[in-house]
Amino acid sequence: MDVTTYWFRHAAEPKAVPLGRQFAANALDDWGLAHMTESVTLIASELVTNAVQATGTTRTELSYLERETLPLVAMRLRVDGPTLVVEVYDTKRTRPRMRTAEADAEDGRGLPLVTLLCERWDWHHHPSGGKVVYAVLPLVPSPGTGAGAQPSPVAASGPLPSRVRKPRGEPGARPDAALLTRLERLLERRVRGLVALGM
To answer: What does the pLDDT look like over 3-45, one tens digit per residue?
Structure first.
């Protein structure tokens, strides 16, 4: 396995979300990037949740046969030069849309949260069918490293997805100030909830 690329695959069911989050945390720990865990695992959670909702089931109790018939979702984490890329694949080819949610709603905030946490996000169709939604974050030096120090021992692992576009309205568009304030509050609640669950 390439030291700078980790893959995760799972049936498109709710269980994929906490497993994907743990996968991301483990990969970051292996790469010496544990200080980026909070933002990366939240991005992974939101993107995998969207993929499961788009293609799988929200039922939590599934038989083995039911699980075997579900499509797969996949996540790839990779370091590309000075950036960390989180990519999530699902079998639906429909363009992801940033929805406007009610002020106190906990649903419909996935892509706005991703926008808040990453440098940019976008999507492209996958050659085998389906789509890939990805988020790009700058590699951040750990708090103990000085200026000019390498943020981690990992190296570049290949080019970004072939269809990188500048945001035009939807993918990657920055939310307005009022929405950002609401998103920050929601983000704080989600982090507190994850901490309370020991995740």
So the answer is: 478 899 999 999 999 999 999 999 999 999 999 999 999 999 9
